[in-house]
Amino acid sequence: MPEPPSPELNSTTTNDVEMAITSSRSLFARSRKDRPTGSTHFGDIDFIEEKTTEIAEASWREVCQSCCIHPPKVWAYIIFCLLAVLVLLYCFLFGLDLLAISAKVLSGCTAGSLFGNDKNPLAALVVGILCTVLIQSSSTTTSIIVSLVGSDTIGIKSAIYMVMGANIGTSVTNTIVVLGHLGDGDELERAFAGATVHDIFNLLSATILFIIELVTQYLYYLTKAMLPSNIRKGKHWEGPIKQIVAPLVDRIIIANSAIIKHVASGGSCSDFYPTKCADSVESYKSCQTGLIGCSSTTNRCPLFFQDKATQKDDEVSGGVCFFIALVILIVCLLFLVTILQRMLMGMSTRIIYKATNINGYLAMVVGCGITMLVQSSSITTSVLVPFVGMGIIRLEQMYPLTLGANLGTTTTALMASMVSEKVEALQIALCHFFFNVNGILIWYPIPFMRKVPLNVAKALGKMTRIWRGFPIVYIITVFFLFPLLLLGLSVLFEKGTIGFTALGCVLAILIAVLIVWVLFKWYRGGKEKFIAYISVKEKEKKSFHDLPDDISFLKHEITVLKEFVGFLEDEQQEDQ
Questions:
Q1: pLDDT score of 137 more than 80
Q2: Choosing a second label site near 190 at 20 to 30 A (CA), which of 219, 269, 469, 543?
Q3: In whole angstroms, what is the distance from residue 239 CA to residue 326 CA?
Q4: Mind listing the pLDDT tens digit for each residue in 335-381?
Q5: Where would I find the H helices in 357-481?
Q6: Which of the four pLDDT bands, split at 50, 70 and 90, describes residue 411?
């Protein structure tokens, strides 16, 4: 008779079975509730529900193991994905550069006409916003402002307010990038919050510092006290990323920045048209160019340059390139997000949090350094937005990175001032720098103040849950309608006649009353009614979109039901 198994053996076998079951559950788990450790992994169905305070601390050993210890097949897959990511990043940067240059061509004459003689502070602020939105580059806007101050076209005090406006307008590019996440509600909420935290910081800083500057003119006197007696003329510096992307963009289209400065100085776009090339030879030395220029380094003209072109021809070419750039950005963004999601699928948030959790002030240095290399805060923040959308970078980490990007972009204006021999140009560049420094001092070091932009950005992100079209309305309202409204009011007051001044006062009072009434209604039940109305409309839209699939599903279920109860056979017999 065989001996019964020992209790120790039974215990060992039971433990092995339990471990196997636990391991199997962990392997196929799709929620932190299914794991014994309670950790959330990238791709879980409840990934968005985990709060930062709930994430457990991981060790650097765990980070290194997740990052570096893989079998050969996995390493081959990782290398392939990294190469694909690098190619897509290059195409993404190419699209951003093409977008900015196309915007300069498309709206260069309009942007140049907005600049001009000294304006009232509000008009100057709005001009800075609109010009940056139209040109798609605060670096270009501030460089033009610096050069216009250097040529005595505009005064220093007006230029200070224009620089403030340029800071607001620069965040439109990364908000446009968010539109690539419209297909995924979770990603859209995170990405929109990550993009708008930059907007909110710039809007809040500009609002406070605009009032302080209007009353005290502290930026003007602070920077004036720091000026040297004279500066030596320097050379223009171009970042390494720009040098990598620019050659390919220059083959397609080149923006003639000189025409914007010419129009801002009182000239006209028509002075450059029609374009002429001596002996029909298209080159930099032989052609008189318009909005689309030729390369001074290669002596070549781009693909979209036309001999004997009119202003309309160049603007149409700029519009076509702008559309192409948007398509490139969206396609690259979709592929980039897909590849990164596949690479990170199943990785614990503990590991991701540990790898990306750096000190906020160090994050500022990183953001500043990256922006100094790429020479554009728009590029820095636009590249980071998809990572926020996927949950790789948290909103709390994105915030200091954008502040660093704001600081980094001021180096462009400083270098532009070095090209001019006027100390006034350096003063504007210093105003740009200290404006961003003061904004950071107000909205970051104190924890309570730091939460204000973050909480507003989170609230805006949650609005996308209710209405996915909200980002589009936000862009149109914040960066176009509201600035144009302020510009129109300021123009009425600048006319200097009693009639226009009275009309401006009446409109300003009506707008103020309307804003107060909307806010009153909003906080007296209007918010809940609006959210309920939008939610119903979104459900109706989704139901209408899913209707064909639902009908197909119902037809299939009815067929299965008929087969089950025998109706289908009866019908076939009747047909026979």
A1: no
A2: 543
A3: 23
A4: 877 787 677 665 555 556 665 677 888 888 888 888 877 777 777 88
A5: 360-374, 377-390, 395-419, 423-443, 447-466, 470-476
A6: confident
* Interatomic CA distance for residues 391 and 402, integer angstroms: 17
pTM of the model: 0.71
Please check whether residue 47 is in contact with residue 40, taking contact to mean a CB–CB distance below 8 angstroms: yes
- What sign for the dihedral angle of Cα 43, 46, 49, 55? negative
pLDDT exceeds cutoff 70 at 59: no
Determine contact, residues 207/228, Cβ cutoff 8 Å. no
CA angle 201, 204, 205 (to 5 degrees): 80
Closest CA to 311 of 77, 106, 5, 169: 106
- Cα angle 494-518-491, degrees, rounded to a multiple of 5: 10
Cα pseudo-dihedral 174, 179, 182, 187, rounded to 10:
-10
Average pLDDT in the 302-322 region?
87
Give the integer Cα–Cα distance in Å for 141 and 133: 10
Grouping H, G, I as helix, E, B as strand and the rest as coil, residue 310 is: coil
User: Do the Cβ atoms of 428 and 156 come closer than 8 Å?
Assistant: yes
SS3 300: strand
Report the DSSP beta bridge partners of residue 288: 276
Taking the alpha carbons at both ends of the chain, their separation in whole angstroms is 70
- Give 457's contacts (C-beta < 8 A, 6+ positions apart): 193, 194, 196, 197, 200, 395
Ranking 23-37, 50-64, 367-381, 449-463 by mean pLDDT, the lowest is: 23-37
What separation in angstroms does the CA of 436 have from each of 159, 290, 364?
Answer: 15, 35, 12
User: Residue 104: which region, alpha, beta or left (left: phi > 0; alpha: psi -120 to 50)?
Assistant: alpha
* Cα–Cα nearest to 445, from 384, 356, 364: 364
Beta bridge partners of 348: 41
Backbone φ and ψ for 300, nearest 5 degrees, come out as -110, 155
